[in-house]
Amino acid sequence: MCDTMVALGSATADGSVIFAKNSDRQPNEPHLLIRIPRKKHPKGSQVQCTYITIDQVEETYDVLLLKPSWMWGAEMGANEFGLNIGNEAVFTKVKQGPPSLLGMDLLRLALERCRTSLEAVHLITDLLAKHGQGGNCGYGKQFYYHNSFLIADRESAWVLETAGPFWAAKKVQDVYAISNRLSIGSDFDLAHPELINYAISRKWCSSEEDFHFARCYTNQLITTFSGASNRETACSRRLEQEKGRITVQTMLEILRSHEPKLEEGSPFSTPSVRSVCMHAGGLVGDHATGSYVAHLTSDLDTYWLTGSSTPCISIFKPYWMTENDIVFSENQEEEALQFWMLREELHRLVLQNKVPDLKEYRRLAAELEQEFLFLAQAPIGGEANPVQLEVIMKQAWQREQELVEDTVERSRSNAGQIRGNLWFRHYWQKQNERLGL
After folding, report:
1. pLDDT value of residue 382
2. What are the two backbone dihedrals, phi and then psi, of residue 173, each rounded to the nearest 5 degrees?
């Protein structure tokens, strides 16, 4: 489960493009920050994706990936040209295919090979036609789905939604949000040539005039249980309300938002599949395991990364794709894992009510983040100095590390217990045991 959104220059306060996503997956699945530089590849070489091997291209671009630890592909990310992509699980009436490319593989391939949003739409649909999509996407469980994508560059954005080999794409105007359901109706700009005919042959619609992609292809039962309607509506409503004045701060607030019943109580004792900041602990639903905001301007692209789950208690830190070692390389997956695990331990300590003063921690975290937001504004609109950017990044990431380490160290030995109903307590006790916490 996930939520992804974009605001184009016509909808933002400064004329930039702002892209954001929460990745909702199994709570024990580590979500890694990985940077892979531009590479040359021998002619005729191949690349091993999660389940299958496909032809490699002669050159792949510099990419920033936010990825589940066990798979080749990524949930979201960007490349050196400012191309950003996030994917969503969608549940359709089309039969699942054999293991092939996952939606996360398609996302990474597009970032490695494309420069613009439209180019990425064409590449993903070409790969879909050639290789198909399929395979278990779950961590610790069997979980199969098709995929939708929100794809943005510095000037434009597209939404691409799939159902097996079939797909429809729509160019974004102003703002758009996608969750775990098909959203395109009959107003698509590009589509699979057999999209409508297949629906008619299956008697999902009676004619071309009657065709509506989401209505025809959606598996209503699973989609309803996913809570996608509530989350997508919440994101879209906020974006529409703020149109013309959307900022990075707007996106951070949306990614941290909970449904009203959790705002009244505690999100750390009640699960919610309907919250954008998703909290696990129920019979259905996942947990927000990673969060990301991209601020794309003509001068400089700034990325805001948590490297952690649970955005409502995490700190977004600035990152620029200069030559730096702030984010982990392909050969540092163990270090990337430990980075995520430390912040996940903080989340589990909060769940166990061991953090002595959660309000104080959140106040300090908010102050740090506001300071980082202020510092990151200085390089935008002027000549970006790589030395200045590295100083800001190192300061931000080090101070966040110190706050998290200090809070975890002071909390480990405290008494506490998980609150909530019997199922919620049992769920998180099991998750903690499996994660070794």
Report:
1. 63
2. -115, 120
Q: Which two tokens stand for residue 256?
A: 């941290």
Q: Are 428 and 366 contacting, i.e. CB atoms less than 8 angstroms apart?
A: no
Q: To 10 degrees, what angle do helices 333-351 and 386-411 make?
A: 50
Q: Model confidence over 362-372: pLDDT tens digits?
A: 999 999 999 99
Q: What is the mean pLDDT of the chain?
A: 95
Largest CA distance in the chain: 66
Would 203 be classed as within a structural domain?
A: yes
Residue 352: is its pLDDT beyond 80?
yes
* Amino acid present at 305: L
Q: What is the pTM of this model?
A: 0.96
Residue 9 in any domain: the answer is yes
- Tokens standing for residue 242: 């703020």
pLDDT band at 263 (very low <50, low <70, confident <90, very high): confident
Asked if the structure places residue 244 within a domain, the reply is yes
CA atoms within 13 A on the CB side of 347: 28
β-bridge mates for residue 36, sequence order:
63
pLDDT band at residue 261 using 50, 70 and 90 as cut-offs: confident
The pLDDT value given to residue 373 = 96
Residues 6+ apart with CB under 8 A from 13: 244, 245, 246, 247
Please indicate, yes or no, if residue 365 is contained in any of the structural domains: no
Q: Give the CATH number for residue 282.
A: 3.60.60.10
Number of structural domains, the chain? 1
DSSP letter at 268 equals T
Whole-number Å distance between alpha carbons of 180 and 286: 12
Pairing verdict, β 146-152 and 59-60: unpaired
Tokens of 331: 């050969």
Check residue 379 and give its pLDDT.
79
Contact criterion met (CB below 8 Å) for 308 and 347: yes
- Terminal C-alpha separation, the chain: 24
Say whether 225 sits in a helix, a strand or coil: helix
Which residue segment(s) compose the domain that 182 sits in? 2-329
Question: Tens digits of per-residue pLDDT, 315-339?
Answer: 999 999 999 999 999 999 999 999 9
Q: Confidence band (pLDDT; 50, 70, 90) for 381?
A: low
Q: Could you read off the pLDDT of 222-254 as tens digits, one per residue?
A: 998 888 999 999 999 999 999 999 999 999 999
Torsion angles phi and psi, residue 162, rounded to 5: -125, 155
| Amino acid sitting at position 54 | I
Q: What is the DSSP letter of 324?
A: -
Structure tokens at 138: 């779950």
For β-strands 175-178 and 2-7, DSSP reports them as: antiparallel
Active site residues: 2
